[in-house]
Design goal:
Layout (H helix, E strand, L loop, with lengths): L7 H14 L12 H4 L4
């Protein structure tokens, strides 16, 4: 069995890059994403 590991720093860098490239329409901020359609929290 083969085990694949990803370093935490690599995962964080990938998430940062993905977030930077994401269209504002899909970002989870108070003006987009779930905030547009889900108002009760």
């Amino acid at each position: 069995m083969r085990v694949h590991r990803v370093l935490l720093d690599e995962a964080a860098a990938t998430m940062r890059e993905t977030g930077a490239n994401m269209l504002p329409k899909y970002e989870e901020i108070s003006l987009g994403g779930m905030a547009v359609n889900v108002t009760e929290c």
